[in-house]
Amino acid sequence: MASTSPTFQPLYLQIKALLVRSLDTGEWRPGEAIPSEIELAGRFNVSQGTVRKAIDALAIDRMVVRRQGKGTFVATHTEEKSSSFRFLRIRRNDGIDESPKSRLLDLKRAKAGAETARLLDLRPGDPVIVLKRVLNYAGEPAVLDEITLPAGLFRGLTRAKLDAHLGSMYSFFETYFGVRMLKADERLRAIGADDATAQILGVAVGTPLLAVERVAYTYGDRPVEVRRGLCATRLTHYHNELG
User: Looking at the 3D structure of the chain, how many domains does it have?
Assistant: First the structure.
C-alpha cells in the first residue's frame, strides 16, 4: 500500500524555493544584489543560518554569486567570465579558454514539430524561432548549431539585434529577453556528415561528427531551448569535455 504521508522538506530548501520564485519573477534582476541574510531572515521569519544554507544551495546551482565584502548577487551570463564555457564543452588541449567566433547562417519562424514540442513543453504547431549558426575555432568551422526557441519567450528577436550583440548567445537571451539558462541536459551520438553539413564544416561527406542534442532550462526546470549541434573532430588541438 502506497504511503499518503506528506514528503518532508528541510526548511532551508523551502526558503530556497521562495528565493527561486523571486528570481523567476524578476524581483532581483541578473547582476543585482539580493537582500542581506539578516533582511531575508526577517522576511521569512527564520534564522540567519537557515537563510545562509538556502543561499549556499543557490550558489551551488549557480543562480547567485557571493562576493567577499560586497554581498550576494544574481548570477548573470553577461558578467560570468566562464559563461561561454559553461555549456559549450570544446576546449583547447593546452587548457587555454578560446571563445569561438559565431557566424549566423539563418533565422526564421517555424512551427514546432512533435519532438521539438515535447522537448520544449509546447503543443505541436506552436510558433518557434529557429537559428542556424557556425562556430569557428582558430579560423576553422568546428560546430554547426541549430537552435530552436519558443517564439512566445523571444518576441522581437531579429538578425539585426543578434548581429549587434557582443557576447555569448546566452548573454543575448538574458539581456534582451530576460531568459536565463541555468542548466542543460545533453545526448551524444556519432553520425556521418551529409552533403550540406560537409560543405559548411569543410569536411568530406561521411566524416564522423559528434552530434549533441541539448535541452536548456530556466527557473522551475522549464525548457526554453533545444540545440542540435554537429561538431567536427578534425581540430587536433581541441577536445570535447563530456563530463
Answer: 2
Q: What percent of the chain has pLDDT over 70?
A: 84
Cα(64)–Cα(58) distance, rounded to whole angstroms?
A: 6
Residues 202 and 135 grouped into a single domain:
yes
Q: What is the pLDDT of residues 63-120, one digit of tens each?
A: 999 998 889 999 888 754 444 445 555 555 556 666 778 899 999 999 999 999 999 9
Residue type, 53: K
